[in-house]
Amino acid sequence: MIPKKPRQTSQDYLKWIRSQPSVVSGKTPCEAAHLHSRGAWGSDYSAIPLTHEEHQEFHRRGQDALEYKFCTSLWHNAWKLVVKYFTEENNGEF
């Protein structure tokens, strides 16, 4: 049996994500919306800030619909946030 990789978790990162404005509307307050399900061993570093309403729409309509509606790439935004967190907000510490 192949062991599962440990899921990357970070309560500090999720707290920071919730303090950021929504990646699609710029509104606050936000929730941490995981692009890759935590139940499927998705990393906390795949989370993006969305308002409650946007987060609900994400689950109802899906990622593609939200990206089309707001003309953005959610994965690209997730990557930019990880880079910002580790370079600007966290003094480059992993």
The helix content is 40-55%
Measured on Cα atoms, how large is the radius of gyration? 14 Å
Number of domains: 1
Lateral strand order in the biggest sheet = 1-2
Low-confidence stretches: none
Principal-axes geometry comes out as: globular
Beta-strand percentage?
5-15%
| Mean pLDDT across residues | 87
> Terminal Cα separation, in Å?
30 Å
How would you describe this protein?
This protein has helices spanning 11-18, 52-61, 63-70, 74-89, and strands at residues 31-34, 47-50. By secondary structure, it is mainly alpha-helical. The chain has one domain (11-89).
Q: What's the structural blueprint in terms of helices and strands?
A:
Blueprint: H1 11-18, E1 31-34, E2 47-50, H2 52-61, H3 63-70, H4 74-89
Antiparallel strand pairs: 1-2
In short:
By secondary structure, the chain is mostly helical. It has 4 helices and 2 strands; from the N terminus they run αββααα. α2 crosses α3 (63-70).
Observed structural traits:
9% strand, globular, 94 residues, 4 helices, two-stranded antiparallel sheet, mainly alpha
